[in-house]
């Protein structure tokens, strides 16, 4: 897989993109997932550019932001155009957003129709810019259950719409990520990997908590130490799914402390797993 470091991991630290990029390249990462606010602000600074990343052998895999599904339409469409411009300026072709901020089960038919219509407008703009609009599987959105996510894809009905498959959030939905992977695979363009020590602590990943400097970090844990069995999921992905996983982009989404140490250890463990699976898939040589 092609692994990305998320700049959102450093949201409460004073660390330059150049330092993050140098570290990422030295620790087997392939790309950077740029948080939208970072992508916007860095664009105004000549200190570090796309060319600087390319020289290091890195790329920007995705720009992650939040397009509104309500409010003034013209303002929203201009925001989408601006974000697509920024995404392309970083050499990326994926713009991540959430499908609202309300549980799908609590939406009326009219509300849902309005949201999917807005998403379709964003998709049209994204297509004009050569960008995919990436909707994340996430609680309290129109992609908060597998059924609602599939319905969303059908309702938006646009080729620019794709999915960011957040494995833990799919598990949080109550779906088996392996089953959901098979249902959504044709449209999955990106994955997010993270884990939790106990299912009942999953609220620690709610945006309001994650973005708060004093928010709780209880339950956040390295990828292979949590309640969800990532080794089993990855074994299926790499050995049985039929998904071309070698070319799949996946971000290690870490929100806790000790960012560099945690990401380094997780990346090493992922490298070991991949090496093991590749060796198993090689046909035995006979003399």
From TrEMBL:
Entries under InterPro entries matching the protein: IolE/XylAMocC-like, Xyl_isomerase-like_sf, Xyl_isomerase-like_TIM-brl
Chain ranges of the Xylose isomerase-like TIM barrel domain: 23-272
Coiled-coil ranges from the UniProt annotation: none
Gene3D superfamilies: Divalent-metal-dependent TIM barrel enzymes
PANTHER family (UniProt xref): HYDROXYPYRUVATE ISOMERASE (PTHR12110), XYLOSE ISOMERASE-LIKE TIM BARREL DOMAIN-CONTAINING PROTEIN (PTHR12110:SF21)
Name assigned to this protein: Xylose isomerase-like TIM barrel domain-containing protein
């Amino acid at each position: 897989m092609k692994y990305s470091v998320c700049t959102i991991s450093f949201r409460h630290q004073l660390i330059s993109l150049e330092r993050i990029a140098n570290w990422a390249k030295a620790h087997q990462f392939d790309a950077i997932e740029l948080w939208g606010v970072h992508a916007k602000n860095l664009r105004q600074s000549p200190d570090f550019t796309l060319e600087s990343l390319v020289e290091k052998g890195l790329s920007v895999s995705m720009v992650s932001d939040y397009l509104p599904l309500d409010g003034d339409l013209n303002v929203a469409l201009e925001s989408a155009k601006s974000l697509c411009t920024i995404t392309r300026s970083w050499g990326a072709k994926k713009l991540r957003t959430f499908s609202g901020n309300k549980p799908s089960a609590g939406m009326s038919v009219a509300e849902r129709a309005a949201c999917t219509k807005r998403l379709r407008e964003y998709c049209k703009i994204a297509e004009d810019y050569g960008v995919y609009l990436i909707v994340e599987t996430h609680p309290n959105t129109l992609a908060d259950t597998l059924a609602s996510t599939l319905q969303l894809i059908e309702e938006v009905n646009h080729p620019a719409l794709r999915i960011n498959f957040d494995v833990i959030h799919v598990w949080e939905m109550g779906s088996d990520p392996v089953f959901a992977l098979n249902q959504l695979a044709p449209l999955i363009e990106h994955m997010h990997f993270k884990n939790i020590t106990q299912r009942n602590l999953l609220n620690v990943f709610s945006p309001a908590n994650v973005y708060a400097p004093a928010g709780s970090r209880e339950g956040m844990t390295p990828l292979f130490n949590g309640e969800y069995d990532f080794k089993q999921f990855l074994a299926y992905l790499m050995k049985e799914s039929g998904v071309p996983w070698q070319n799949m982009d996946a971000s290690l989404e870490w929100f806790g402390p000790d960012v560099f140490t945690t990401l380094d250890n997780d990346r090493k463990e992922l490298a070991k797993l991949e090496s093991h699976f590749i060796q198993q898939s090689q046909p035995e040589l006979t003399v």
